[in-house]
Specification:
The structure is a single chain. By secondary structure, the chain is mainly alpha-helical. It has 19 helices and 10 strands. The strands form 5 sheets. The protein has a two-stranded antiparallel ribbon. A two-stranded antiparallel sheet has the order 3-6. The chain has a two-stranded antiparallel sheet with strand order 4-5. A hairpin with a 5-residue loop joins β1 and β2. 29% of the residues are buried. It is found in: Cell membrane.
């Protein structure tokens, strides 16, 4: 930066002209000055979303490279490439071009593996980022729309990942495609028509790979390119960042470092770290070796087929469902496919999308929240989240029930029934365990505030009594426990007045809401100022 008389700084001459031109046409100077001063929190959990964003950038760049060599065609050819074991085998052009990328294009196999690994990291970062936002209450007003967009992004990326690893047309991806066809056929009345429309005729047809290719590289990435900036930049910058409770953190202040130069330097280095780790995984850990699977053959049967981790829970859902069917009006409805493949995912994603609004209905909380909750301070929400994690995890493990049975020499019947029972009771047990852990941590916090930290030093008093010496904590150390913050819920109950029930208690739905509200409020810790805020909210 150049400096003129009076100490005022000016941009370098090389940037002054273009900057003035941009400002005159788009009014960018004011936005740029505000953007440079924007504070970004320094807590490590805020980097989880950045992992997803940077992985998406790597996916796009490597995907562009792969499109230069991949042929999305199911026309059959005789392979005569570099991989000897498959030379002379009849296969689709899609599979042959993938082998060509892997063995004949310089750096092609590395690019394929970087693309695949970055997709896996992308989805893992989305899941962990989503869990962080859930457990800390970051989805509350005014961020409900951002939460819904995040859930939609998760769905789109998961579906696009499925389409992506189907494109090589190998035996493993073809098995997943066969499952997709079974799901479509399970739709009552319209199933056969939908399947014929998607595949362009009888399975597998010769159109599905070109169609999935268009969706994979154009349609879904285009939607993602619109939603990710909206989710990560536009709404975040408009609504300001959330922050954890602590010394100096309030619902009206934002603590952190400015975007320029601190945050931009950190985030650039972090992007390089994400790319470096992805490249190391791609270089040293093989993934999706399609040449070992061979081309897809609809008549071939494979054992031990496993999808990528993010589709494993759907695989487990299909494996756990009993063979139930319903025959009605000349139609057979295969519940063993319809429920696990459509109903279970529908319940999961719908539940995630509406949860912010459902919690607001239960808690009566319509305040704006920029200050996050500690998970221990909201035991009900933490218990629900723990139950959801177990629900997802059990289905994910059930997707490998055959491998578990084989590796540990356990009957497949036992593993299937174990996961069926765990699927039902596991989330309930996880809820109560997480709830009790939160209560224990709250008691520990109260002990820290009242008595201080245990030092392990034992002192003998003049009367012969032994006591442990405690070290009292300063205000900064206890601020996250004691400082005032907006309550996570308010009481919706109102006592009867001269035998007349409150309006909320006169309907069945209202009584359910009051019962859930009491349960949510039961073990929330009290903070200074909570009572006054609650009284004002009830009066409003």
């Amino acid at each position: 930066m150049a400096t003129h008389q009076g100490g005022e700084t000016r941009p370098p001459k090389a940037l002054a002209g273009p900057g003035r031109a941009m400002d005159e046409r788009f009014g960018a100077a004011g936005f740029a000055r505000k953007a440079m001063r924007k504070a970004f929190p320094d807590h490590w959990t805020f980097l989880l979303g950045e992992i997803a964003m940077y992985s998406f950038a790597v996916v796009i760049v490597t995907g562009v490279f792969l499109t230069l060599f991949f042929r999305p065609s199911m026309s059959e050819i005789i392979y005569d490439g570099s991989y000897g074991p498959l030379r002379g085998v009849l296969m689709s052009e899609a599979y042959a071009s993938t082998l060509h990328i892997s063995f004949d294009v310089r750096g092609g196999l590395l690019m394929r593996q970087i693309h695949h690994w970055s997709t896996i990291i992308f989805l893992a970062a989305i899941v962990v980022h989503l869990l962080r936002n859930f457990f800390t209450g970051a989805f509350r007003k005014p961020r409900e729309l951002n939460w819904v967009i995040g859930v939609l992004l998760f769905m789109l990326v998961m579906v696009n990942g499925l389409f992506g690893y189907t494109l090589p047309d190998d035996l493993l991806s073809g098995t997943g495609l066969r499952i997709l066809e079974g799901v479509l056929l399970s739709l009552p009345v319209i199933g056969t028509y939908v399947s014929m429309w998607v595949f362009g005729g009888e399975f597998p047809g010769d159109l599905i790979i070109p169609r999935l290719y268009v969706v994979h590289i154009l349609l879904i990435p285009g939607i993602l390119l619109a939603l990710i900036p909206l989710h990560a930049v536009v709404l975040t910058w408009r609504q300001t960042h959330t922050q954890y409770p602590g010394k100096g953190s309030t619902n009206r202040t934002v603590r952190g470092y400015p975007f320029y130069p601190v945050f931009i330097a950190k985030t650039t280095a972090y992007f390089l770290w994400v790319f470096g780790v992805t490249a190391l995984l791609a270089a040293f850990f093989q993934i999706n070796p399609i040449w070992l699977f061979g081309p897809y053959d609809p008549g071939a049967i494979s054992a031990g087929s496993q999808p990528d981790w993010y589709m494993g829970w759907l695989e487990g859902s299909l494996r756990l469902m009993p063979a139930w069917e319903i025959d009605a009006w000349g139609h057979t409805v295969p519940m063993n496919v319809l429920i696990p493949a459509l109903v279970v995912p529908g319940l999961l994603f719908t539940g995630l999308a509406i949860y912010p609004f459902l919690e607001r209905w239960v808690t009566g909380d319509h305040q704006i929240h920029h200050l996050l909750d500690r998970p221990r301070d909201v035991p009900v929400r933490t218990g629900i989240g723990a139950g959801g994690v177990v629900f997802y995890g059990v289905l994910w493990l059930a997707g490998a029930n055959d491998l578990i049975a084989y590796k540990f020499d356990i009957p497949l019947f036992w593993t299937t029934w174990f996961f069926r029972v765990t699927f039902l009771v596991g989330p309930v047990i996880a809820y109560f365990i997480a709830y009790r852990v939160c209560m224990g941590l709250q008691r520990r916090d109260r002990a820290l505030v009242e008595h201080g930290l245990e030092t392990g030093v034992i002192r003998r008093l003049p009367n012969g009594e032994y006591i442990e010496v405690d070290r009292h904590l300063d205000e900064e150390s206890t601020a996250s426990i004691t400082d005032a913050r907006p309550p996570a819920a308010i009481s919706l109950s109102r006592p009867e007045l001269e035998g007349v029930k409150a309006p909320r208690a006169r309907t069945r739905l209202g009584r359910v809401r009051l019962a859930l509200n009491r349960r949510f409020l039961a073990d929330l810790p009290e903070h200074p100022g909570d009572g006054e805020r609650e009284r004002k909210a009830v009066e409003r």
